[in-house]
Each structure stands twice: as structure tokens, then as C-alpha cells.
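Figure S7 source data.
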Amino acid sequence: MDGNYDVAAIRREFPILERKVNGFPLVYLDSAASAQKPRTVIETQREYLSHFHSNIHRGVHTLATQATEAFEGARETIKAHFNAAENAEIIFTAGATDGINLVAGTWGRANLTASSTVLMTRLEHHSNIVPWQILASEIGFKIEVIEIFPEGTIDLEDYNAKLALAPSLVCFSHVSNTLGTINDAKQLTSLAHDAGAMVMVDGAQAAPHMNVDLQDINCDFYVASGHKMYGPTGIGFLYGKRALLDAMPPWRGGGEMISSVSFDVPTTFNVPPYKFEAGTPHISGAIALGAAIKWMESVGLDNIAAHELALTKYAHEKLLQIEGLRIYGTAEHKAGVVSFLVEGIHPSDLGTLLDQLGIAVRTGHHCTEPLMDWYKIPGTVRASFGAYNTFDDVDALVAALERAIKMLK
Ligand code: PMP
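C-alpha cells for the predicted 4'-deoxy-4'-aminopyridoxal-5'-phosphate complex:
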């Protein structure tokens, strides 16, 4: 227990942490890829599937009413937790990737022209790059890259210089999944707005690790993924300011997103958020995501952030004692992500040996190839922390690394 943070009690809530991998107790250091699930999330999904599964919104029967209330209750939980102004601003998506594609496919297609410029940072995950590249190849707008410093922070001088190009949109990640850099979302948003640009924030790595206040940040769009917030896969949300959502054309066509459909007069569309939620959604996922957010709130995101920061500092200290090890991402404000390389050893060889010792880390480019190219490296080994990680996990990583390095050198 560090301070009042009872990590042992938290760990007991995660059944998967009891298992062994290759004969060793699991040391799970891959929460940036996907977080494990507490019992309340597993139970919420089971309860829904066992007791009140039904399609939502259209039914008059009891199960439909209960399922609809739980689904809309989850939307309310997200709205309150992230401090959106109204429930209509929270659109359920399949995840962060899906949300960004929605913004590109609706707002982007309606508002960007051949003479537009879109700015994005060199830190971006492929999911906040490729949807814009696909749209750019169709429309012909220009993509400009905001440069970073070697420690992984945004070069504000370069940002200001690129804002002088009068971009229509600025895209940035709140927290880098590869380097852990926490970007000052409020400041970057305010600078973009001053330059007349809209702002799309990828919050996939921020939402599980800190309190996020959307009205305070004042961005136009924000996306997150449920599975990184201790919730299920295949569910997440897009936040958009109501006036923008009202003005945006629909995305996918189908049931629920319409107001009325006709062969004789033009089909009309529903109001947000339903306008963007065609078809039957991931109902159990949304309800369990609500439970996951409540679980994070019960621990307290400030407590989770402080615990993960302590682990990150400890990991930096311990890892740097290993000869030839270099850490990528040393920003002063960083989340629980530690990317590193050991001189002369390929990251995937290290990852494979660590797995044999029960340690789950991620290796590769982490869907940030432009960033890896900039550092001139093929990828890194990435250890990332969740609420349930311990200082012993870091010690186990370091001990296993020392063993693996001896075997590989
Ligand atoms: N953005 C960032 C920063 C991420 O780390 C990830 C997931 N690795 C994504 C977007 C995409 O999330 P998802 O695969 O859940 O859509």
C-alpha cells in the first residue's frame, strides 16, 4: 500500500491478475494497448446479458425499457464524468478509431476543401493520421506536421508557425501512447481557436489516466476507447460540441439515425447523438463502459494518476541502471508509459523473452510509424501501467530484462 492507495485491494478486483503465464505469475504491463477488467465490469455485462438484454429505443416491453434506461444511463455517466454540456454531445462509437473516422467522414468531408490545411503532431497514433490521409487523397487538402523535441514534447514555436498557415483543423493526442507525453490540451486548443482552427483531440490514452474536463479544454471533438478505461472492447465515444453535431451531415445510414424515411420526399434525420448511431449499438459494451467509469471514479482518477506517476518515476530510475538502455519519451509531464531500447538488441526479441518469464509488454512501432522513423528506430519495448500495477511489477520487469539481455548478448 502506498499512501492511501490500496493496490492489493484493487488487484483483487481483477480476476485475470490471478493467472500464470508460462509458469510465472502474470505481470501485466500492457495497459496502454488494453486495460484489464475489474469484476464490476464483467458482472455488469453478465447481468445485462442474463437478465435484461433487449434491443433499445424502439420497444415498449419491460426488457426494452430496462435496456434503454441502462444504455442511456451509461451515456449520462460519460457526459457527467467528462463534463460535456449535454448527453447529446456523447456519441457511442466502436472506439477512438471509429470516432475519428466519424469526424473525418462527416465534419471533414463537409468542411474541408482542396485549399484547406490540417495540422497534426508527429506524435499521433495512426488512427489520428490515416483517416485524414484517406480524406486528403479524395479532397486534396494539405496535411502539415507539428514537430516535437527529442524528449517528446510539442515544439510550440513550430506549432505557432504552422498555425500561421490558417489551418481548418488541428489534431493532437492528449497523451502519446508511445512516449507518454501529456500534452496541454487546453493550451493547444486555445492557440488553435485563436488561429481560427477546429480542434480534434485523441483522448484514448488520457481518459484512463487522468480527470478530463471537456468544457474546460474547450476542444471541438474528443474521442476515447472503452477498453483502455477498464471497459469492454468495441465501445467508446466521440464528444462533439452540440452546434457542430447539429450542423454535421449524418455518417452511416440506417435505423435509429433517421427521423422519417420515404421514397417520395427526402428522408430526414434524427437529432444528435442518434443521428450518428445507425443500427443496433454495442448495448452491453456501453452499459459496462458506464460501470468501468464508475469504477475509475470509485478509485479516483487523481489517485490513479499519482500512483502511475510514482510507478513511472521508479521504472525510469531502475531501467536507467541497465547498461545500454535508452528511454524514449522523457517529457516532464508524462503518463504511465515507458518506451525503451537496449543497445544491440531487437525489441521483439526482448518482448518474446520477457513473455517467457510471464511479463506482458508491447514491442514494435505502437501504431506511430512516423514517430519511430523520426527517431530512426524500428520500434521500442513499451511497458505501460494501469491502476493495478505495483512496484514489484517494475522490479520483476527489471530482473527479467537483465536475464533476457544476458541471454541475447
Ligand atoms: N489513439 C491512441 C493514442 C491510442 O493509443 C490508440 C490505441 N492504441 C488509439 C488511438 C486507437 O484506439 P482503438 O484501437 O481502441 O480505436
